[in-house]
Amino acid sequence: MVGVDFGTLSGRAVVVRVHDGAELGSAVHEYTHGVIETELPGSGVRLGPDWALQSPQDWIDVLRTAVPEAVAAAGVAPDQVIGIGTDFTACTVLPATADGTPLCFETPAEPHAWPKLWKHHAAQPHADRINDLAARRGESWLPRYGGKISSEWEFAKGLQVLEEAPDVYARSERWIEAADWIIWQLTGVESRNICTAGYKGVFQDGRYPSEEFLAALNPGFAGFAAKLATGEVGDQAGGVTLAPLGGLAGRLTARAAGWTGLPEGVAVAVGNVDAHVTAAAADAVRPGQMVAIMGTSTCHIMPSDQLAEVPGMCGVVQDGIVPGLWGYEAGQSAVGDIFAWFVDSFGTDGHEQLTSLAEKQAVGQHGLVALDWFGGNRSVLVDHNLSGVIVGQTLATKPEDVYRALIESTAYGARMIVETFEKSGVPVDEFVVAGGLLKNPFLMQVYADVLRRPLSAIGSDQGPALGSAIHAAVAAGAYPSIGEAAAAMGKRTEAAYVPDQARADAYDRLYAEYRRLHDFFGDGQMLHTLRAIRNEARS
């Protein structure tokens, strides 16, 4: 099987053996355009604050380069590959024509014609309006998202396009997740997966938000749901056909076979989200297993047999992680990005040196506590206009002090999420860690101490790509279900990190101060004002 993970800065492919999940070869392709945050490629058109775009050409280049390189590295013949699966960051969404052509290919100097990356937060005012109206109207879908939808998601970004670039909105015959768009390019068949539709597209109980609700936001927005569907939407009472996870989306076309070097007709799995496929890679698809995929941001996902309303969660979707269970999602908008910002912005020593100095300290020795909101707050406040805070600095504060405080702040944010779930009646029985930050043992130990619970660790450096390969194995018919495929091909080490009682007790005191800061700044009055002043000055 081949699994392809389309990340924030690069795409990676891995070749996996079907019967045991052994990773035989892999390759990475760095995106030529990376994250487009300041100006559009070629035209030099400037972007506003909190914008983050990507180029679809980078995604195609991953198929052209990383897939054949991974197959070659694995030493297998292309005709031995029986399936391919993919995953994407989400919500990464793009406007396209009815045949799937991205609008940025037609009008590259128009910012709103480009795909909006998950970390595009410029639609926060539009998300605020959606949330306010939904709360006033008592929309039944709102509690499924913890009481607020995010500016990162399809509806907020779509409303931003309508109101800031109505011509682009009018030309957008499709508003489609990159997770589904790449499957369209591989198979020639347009589809929508149940995962992104539920978590990012506000699809609940067989329908999108009503035309009446959307028209109340803006009359021109009334028909937005039709752009999300595949032509089978019918009326708003239902009729949308969503593809199940692990399902067969179609077969590799001749064009896509030419890109990848794989045989035409290979099974292509239904699209999925990077975090959600990782649960299968860690064999963590049972109720109560929370998987934290820790990289530039952290996404927390967990299957459960219970339906509950959890404040500030990113959503609960039936069959959203594995068929037959409710799938919960929460998250932190910036984690690894925070550490990278500190190192890159202040000319400090690199991550390894700062970690070496920080881990020598006793808990609380630096006298600091920070809020992990440098990319806004995804859970549990769902406000991307919040910003980071560091309290307690003096003339004696050193770079390693701040670095450690930032690491600890992200662990406190994770604890806030876990406690919110459990207070809402959704138990977290096992905390499983995946993603690039797993490579930092000190950071992992801090999390175990702050959370006061053991951390299990995924047994792969390529969790999403492995998870995509596992889904492809189901789509190709090698296994009857995701659960059975995960048991055979996924892997994790239970209790890889165990909390230290004395450090955990010390962290309880600091976590109490974190919560005080959380509650004080969480109303946004000061942080929103500072952001507004910044934006005015920049404009």
Automatic annotation (TrEMBL):
Similarity comment: family membership: Belongs to the ribulokinase family.
Enzyme class: transferase
Domain of life the protein comes from: Bacteria
EC annotation from Swiss-Prot or TrEMBL: 2.7.1.16
GO molecular function per UniProt: ATP binding; D-ribulokinase activity; ribulokinase activity
Protein name: Ribulokinase
A matching Pfam family: FGGY_C
SUPFAM superfamilies in UniProt: Actin-like ATPase domain
Biological process, per Gene Ontology: L-arabinose catabolic process to D-xylulose 5-phosphate
Record lineage: Bacteria, Bacillati, Actinomycetota, Actinomycetes, Streptosporangiales
Pathway: Carbohydrate degradation; L-arabinose degradation via L-ribulose; D-xylulose 5-phosphate from L-arabinose (bacterial route): step 2/3
Reactions performed catalytically: L-ribulose + ATP = L-ribulose 5-phosphate + ADP + H(+)
Boundaries of every Carbohydrate kinase FGGY C-terminal domain copy: 291-476
InterPro entries listed in its UniProt record: ATPase_NBD (IPR043129), Carb_kinase_FGGY (IPR000577), FGGY_C (IPR018485), Ribulokinase (IPR005929)
Keywords: Arabinose catabolism, ATP-binding, Carbohydrate metabolism, Kinase, Nucleotide-binding, Transferase
A single GO cellular-component term on record: cytoplasm
